[in-house]
């Protein structure tokens, strides 16, 4: 994937790492894709689509941003929640700027406040080398603002108060339409220090294509089966073989129960066919070539599957 060498950065060039954090479903992955100009993270209306840290890279004439997309954080009521929080902490500690994304079409809620407190806490850490320098509060879904100006004003005021109290930047945008994202990049550039190119300027992600292909299959399962198949569904890429004519992909979808296997396969295999052809089209866009995709579905008992798949995905499971 490293298609070109890393050049020497011009004078005054800025670079750095930006963690995109926030509640599930606020639009973090949509934003990262919009910023880097390519689909590097999958998105869906179902919360907790993103399961591990992904890096999206954007290089402009003035700066290189390495965006770290994190799984949505919510209050840890259960073990997975604790894992998500500890992952987010790891992702946030080593970056230059934190972009805390909220759904700006609704007022600041308890979930956002929990994350805001978590970020404010991190910034108070005595280990300055492991602490982000600044925070931007990003109000997403600008296109979904309520039409009532009073309601709009109340929403804006709730976020302004938080930004003011903490001394954080504040930007409104729509990851879906792209409105406001230029201003966001301007503000982010100002918060980076001068630095080198960390990656070749034409690279948009540090993830291998094989991983993104698996994610594209998972995305279609989440989109097409809706709530019927849980998030524990895992996709394992068994084989990816490239040839001049087409790329041959063999993958297995792991579910927890026979009933879920039935849903993913569908009546006379219709659902699996639909998942496969939609994922194949996305893969073809990704690699800019023809793809032949074969999908299998297997049932794996819950305890084995969840431990195996989460660890595979890079989560540190607490014993
Ligand atoms: N109207 C509107 N919808 C948006 C916008 N940004 C994202 N969405 C939608 O919000 C839903 C969630 O988006 P994601 O990008 O998957 O959200 P996320 O924060 O990465 O979610 P997790 O992976 O659960 O943490 C999708 O249906 C998006 O299309 C926006 O600017 N406007």
TrEMBL record:
Q: Where is this region: G3?
A: 69-72
By its UniProt entry, which PROSITE patterns does this protein fall under?
Answer: G_ERA, KH_TYPE_2
GO MF annotation list? GTP binding; GTPase activity; ribosomal small subunit binding; small ribosomal subunit rRNA binding
Q: Which residues bind GTP?
A: 22-29, 69-73, 140-143
| Record has Disulfide bond as a keyword | no
* Keywords on record: Cell membrane, Cytoplasm, GTP-binding, Membrane, Nucleotide-binding, Ribosome biogenesis, RNA-binding, rRNA-binding
Q: Flavoprotein among the record's keywords?
A: no
What topology in the membrane does the UniProt record assign? Peripheral membrane protein
Q: What is its main location?
A: cytoplasm
Residues of the KH type-2 domain = 225-301
Q: What NCBIfam families would the database entry show?
A: era (TIGR00436), PRK00089.1 (NF000908), small_GTP (TIGR00231)
Family designation: Belongs to the TRAFAC class TrmE-Era-EngA-EngB-Septin-like GTPase superfamily. Era GTPase family.
Subunit-level organization = Monomer.
The job of this chain, per UniProt, is described as: An essential GTPase that binds both GDP and GTP, with rapid nucleotide exchange. Plays a role in 16S rRNA processing and 30S ribosomal subunit biogenesis and possibly also in cell cycle regulation and energy metabolism.
Protein name in UniProt: GTPase Era
According to its UniProt entry, this protein's organism is Prochlorothrix hollandica PCC 9006 = CALU 1027
What gene is this protein translated from?
era
